[in-house]
């Protein structure tokens, strides 16, 4: 259950810039608990902006409080991540065969541990299940891993991702049957 003053809603394309700012603020504020200053700075500089296809598809959610975005996240129904490249939106996943990916889960550092991310995950799970998906997958940063474990995701693999500036962070690929 989220704070009484906060509301969850489906994001729209006009939210994109505010979502991008929220992502950067979340990384800058939460990554230092697990990653060193160089890794955090690299993540702030290199983590992509929100995939606008998620906004267009209606599979992305935001939590608002007093008109400000305080949490975001969504799920995808497409087979590749895109930022509206020249190829256009990718084909849809097959719910009978494919897992729906959870994407871009971020919370403002001063609003963590209040149920916002869980509410977004609940919305994603319900929407993906309604479309026939039977599995969810995600790639968790280390600060986010405990949330996903509590929600029911299990670890598949730990790996290192390397940013263009050659800095690397450890992440966890996770999955969950729904």
Number of helices: 5
Q: Give the C-alpha Rg.
A: 15 Å
Mean pLDDT: 92
| Unreliable runs | none
**Could you spell the SSE succession in H and E letters?**
EHHHEEEHEHEE
Question: Any overview of this molecule?
Answer:
The protein has 178 residues and is of the alpha+beta class. It has one domain (6-79, 89-177): Aminopeptidase (3-Layer(aba) Sandwich). It is built from 5 helices and 7 strands, in the order βαααβββαβαββ. It has helices at 16-30, 37-46, 52-57, 116-130, 145-151, and strands spanning 6-10, 60-65, 68-75, 100-107, 135-141, 154-162, 168-177. A 7-stranded mixed sheet has the order 1-2-3-4-5-7-6.
């Amino acid at each position: 259950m989220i704070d009484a003053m906060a509301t969850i809603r489906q994001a729209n394309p006009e939210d994109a810039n505010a979502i991008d700012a929220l992502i950067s603020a979340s990384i800058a504020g939460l990554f230092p608990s697990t990653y060193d200053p160089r890794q955090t700075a690299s993540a702030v500089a290199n983590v992509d902006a929100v995939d606008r296809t998620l906004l267009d598809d209606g599979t992305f959610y935001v939590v608002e409080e007093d008109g400000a975005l305080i949490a975001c996240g969504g799920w995808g129904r497409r087979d590749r991540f895109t930022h509206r490249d020249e190829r256009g939106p990718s084909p849809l996943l097959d719910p009978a065969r494919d897992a729906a990916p959870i994407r871009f889960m971020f919370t403002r550092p001063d609003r963590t541990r209040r149920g916002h991310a869980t509410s977004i995950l609940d919305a994603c799970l319900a929407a993906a299940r309604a479309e026939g998906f039977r599995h969810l997958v995600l790639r968790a940063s280390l600060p986010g891993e405990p949330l996903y474990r509590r929600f029911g995701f299990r670890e598949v693999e730990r790996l290192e991702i390397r940013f263009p500036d050659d800095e690397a962070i450890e992440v966890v690929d996770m999955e969950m049957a729904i």
